[in-house]
Design a protein that fits this description.
The chain is built from 12 helices and 4 strands, in the order ααββααααααββαααα. By secondary structure, the chain is mainly alpha-helical. Keywords: Coiled coil.
Length: 344
């Protein structure tokens, strides 16, 4: 009887130990087996993306400016006295006398700044004189400087493609499984994905805000371009040239009593050449058409959209890479859950 009781107690002790051991193993299986994988999933972040900036595509207007020699001569005319004629004044008169004929000088001196119209500019005689002056090395330095308009910010290269949406390749392995280990692996994955989604949304917000700023800048450029290509703008440029000529002629009149014979006529002819050349170049500038302001704005908008799409695609690619890594880590954790089993 004692022996039987002893055997029964021994069997109960062994069974108790066995059940306790199983319970411990089952408790262990409540956590993903590999804590290193779990830590990696917790620390997974969206890789930083360097966003492109949209170039500032806009029309840089052309301009017409008096040359350095013109400015020097006009300043020197104001300093002529009975005792001193600046060398620049004497030289300018000599250069005109050796280049232009008396008939050409006479024709030029009949021009007045207020009457230097397109009709005068288009006369055969004036065209011939301007052509002669522009081809002569002595007079070239007195002619106006023309800078043509250009479009800044245009880049070579094809358009970037639109962004593609990232998707999870499949549901979590055994997402509906009630095993606590698998459930916790899926829970960690869901939290990681939520964190990645939030990071992606923040990057997309930056992209959208940049695109909005681009559109605002494009609109400002369009308004500025329209103003700089209006008839009023070019008329204002003409008035600048006429003002320079009038000031030079006024200084020449004051200097006339002190000038040598012929110098007055030569210098007046040169001032009028400068004026006619200036006005002719303003006309060239107005006639030159790179593209309308609306065409340039359309190009700028297209480029801004391309940059937005490219940036979105870059963020999407970074997000997809991180999400794929998260899926890989989750699946490995679930695989380790199976390897642990239920302690058997």
């Amino acid at each position: 009887m004692k022996t039987r009781t002893l055997r029964l107690l021994t069997l109960l002790t062994f069974l108790t130990f066995f059940l306790y051991d199983c319970k411990d193993k089952e408790a262990d299986s409540l956590e993903p087996a590999n804590t290193e994988l779990s830590n990696q999933l917790d620390k997974l972040e969206l890789a930083p993306t360097t966003l492109q900036e949209t170039p500032d595509i806009k029309l840089v207007p052309g301009k017409v400016e008096p040359s350095a020699k013109t400015l020097e001569l006009n300043n020197s005319l104001g300093s002529v006295t009975s005792a001193s004629i600046p060398a620049s004044v004497t030289k300018a008169a000599e250069e005109v006398s050796t280049t232009l004929s008396e008939a050409e000088i006479k024709a030029l001196n009949e021009v007045s700044p207020s009457g230097a119209s397109k009709t005068v500019l288009n006369s055969q005689q004036v065209r011939a004189i301007l052509s002669k002056a522009s081809g002569d090395v002595k007079l070239q330095g007195y002619l106006s400087l023309l800078t043509v308009a250009k479009v800044n910010g245009l880049l070579d290269g094809g358009r970037t493609g639109a962004a593609t949406e990232g998707t999870v390749t499949g549901p979590a392995i055994e997402a509906g499984n009630t095993d606590d280990c698998i459930a916790r692996a899926n829970e960690k994955f869901d939290k990681t994905k939520e964190r990645l989604d939030e990071a992606k949304a923040r990057e997309q917000q930056k992209i959208n805000e940049a695109y909005t700023r681009d559109l605002e800048r494009i609109q400002r450029n369009l308004e500025q371009c329209t103003g700089e290509n209006s008839a009023e703008h070019f008329e204002a440029l003409r008035q600048v040239g006429i003002k320079i000529a009038n000031e030079a002629l006024a200084a020449l009149e004051k200097a006339k009593p002190f000038l040598r014979p012929g110098q007055y006529e030569y210098l007046k002819a040169l001032i009028n050449i400068q004026l006619l050349d200036y006005l002719d170049k303003v006309n060239q500038l107005e006639a030159a058409k790179i593209g309308t302001c609306t065409e340039i704005a359309a190009i700028a908008k297209t480029r801004a959209e391309e940059v937005k799409n490219s940036n979105t695609a870059a963020v999407e690619a970074s997000y997809n890479d991180a999400l794929a890594k998260a899926i890989e880590l989750r699946d490995k954790m679930i695989e380790n859950c199976h390897n642990q089993g239920s302690g058997i």
